[in-house]
Amino acid sequence: MMNLLAATVAQGEEYSPLAPEPAELVVGSLAFAIVLILVGWKLVPAIRKTLEERTEAIEGGLDKANKRQAEAEAVYKEYRAKLQEAQREAGRLREEAREQGAAIIAEMKEQAQVEARRITEAAQAQIEAERQQAMQSLRAEIGAMSVDLAGRVVGESLEDSARQSRVVDRFLEELEGRARTQEQITS
Amino acid sequence: MSALHLLASGSGDEFEAPGLHIFDWGPIFKDGPAWLEWFTKPTLIVILAALVVIVFSWRAFGNPKLVPKGVQNVGEVAYLLVRDQVARPMLGKDGDRWMPFLFSTFFFVLFMNLAGVVPVLQLPATSHIAIPIVLALAVYLMMLFLGIKNQGLVGYFKNIMFPPGLPKALYLILAPIELLSTIILRPFTHAIRLFANMFAGHLLIAFFATVAWWFLAEKLTPLGAGVGLVGFLMTIVMTAFEIFVQSLQAFIFTLLAASYINSSLHADH
User: Fold this and answer.
1) Would you state the pLDDT for residue A142?
2) Which distant-in-sequence residues (6+ apart) come within 8 Å of B107 by Cβ?
3) Exposed e or buried b for every residue in B89-121, given b needs 16+ CB within 10 A?
4) Looking at the 3D structure of chain B, how many domains does it have?
5) Fewer Cβ neighbours under 10 Å: the N or C end of chain A?
């Protein structure tokens, strides 16, 4: 029977708890030595190294993250500055365009006025010229007619008023007929 | 029925409290060959404890990953426990360098202690004085070696016996006391603190278990049943308490080892 569950009840000599058992001293020493060699010498340094590497990795990661954040901050600031610059530029361009537009409109207005004045003047000049021409031709005609009329008045014997009126009527008809023919020609 | 004999403490009608014999274990193979005589229950427990420490550490730290998984997590908790509660508080910046020794010692002692509450084993290997002697002696020799190496033979003893900053006359008393306590008594107190705690704890559990067995199973009487019940409940309570004491003693043993090592690395006065 294996002696695992029962202590030896009677072994003759008295058991002394303060006397170390030689077998236990040997086994204990060997076991402790083996534990120290395998666990202490090989395994614990491995985990120690891993923990250190992890710390480094985390610290490295944090550093990297900080650097990235700083970079992002810088880029953001730059972007903000550029945006402001662009807005200022756009405002300036708008202002410039508005000024130019106003200038162009004023110029056009002036040009139009000048043109209108020129046209009006030209028209007036032409009208004046035509009037002059009309006056001249009218004067010449009236002269001729007056001579003609005077000739007739002198040629006819103006005895009575009936005759007088006939002469005048005839003259006027003639005058009318002439004017009509002149109209036909001009139109 | 040898198991029952153990619990009932032998023969007769009288209740007999368990005595020293509960620590007295012969060879596991009673009629085995002479060369297996060393193989007793305590030595088996020592070997098992060593195996548990080795296998656990190997599974946890054998192939360590930067991102831990499974057993490595548990192993890291154990490592950090020893590092942050023992090594660094005691040894400061030297703490990490001594982790291999402290980690191995703590868990070796812890598992040998815990064998006291593991069914079937139910014997703390450290309740046999040979085991604490081995461990304390290892620490003691290391302490002397490190002390002499770091402070010089004369310096080491001078630092122990003549801590500076005291009236001259006081050294007459202090020097022998310091020498005695550091060089002579330290290994004994170190070993016996662990041994006595485990020894007494085991005896207590065995006592209450025997009471319960005797009054509830062996000699069940209406009057004795109450006593047996108390014994039964106390066995459970004491087992829980023992787990605490076993852990605490492993911790204290390692803490003291670290403290002794530190006293050798630096003159501590």
Assistant:
1) 81
2) A39, B53, B56, B57, B78, B250
3) ebbeeebeebbbbbbbbbbbbbbbbbbbbeeeb
4) 1
5) C
pLDDT for residue B236 is more than 80: yes
- Specify the residue for token string 């060089």: B183
Residue B64 neighbours by CB under 8 Å, 6+ apart: A46, A47, A49, A50, B72
Give pTM, 2 decimals. 0.72
DSSP-assigned letters across all residues of B225-242:
HHHHHHHHHHHHHHHHHH
pLDDT exceeds cutoff 50 at B8: no
Radius of gyration of chain A (CA): 68
Show Cβ contacts of residue A79 under 8 Å, excluding neighbours closer than 6 positions. none
Q: A178 versus B47: which is more confidently predicted?
A: B47
Q: Which residue range forms the structural domain that includes residue B246? A: 2-265
Q: Is A37 on the interface with B (CB under 8 A)?
A: no
* Token output for A38: 């395998």
Q: How far apart are CA B213 and CA B240, in angstroms?
A: 19
Q: Does A58 touch chain B (CB under 8 A)?
A: no
Model confidence pLDDT, tens digit, residues A77-123: 999 999 999 999 999 999 999 999 999 999 999 999 999 999 999 99
Residue B84 forms contact with A (CB below 8 Å): no
Q: Report whether pLDDT(B188) > 90.
A: yes
Instruction: Please answer yes or no on whether A39 and B199 come within 8 Å at the CB atom.
Output: no
Residue showing tokens 């395994």: A43
Cα Rg, chain B, nearest whole Å = 23
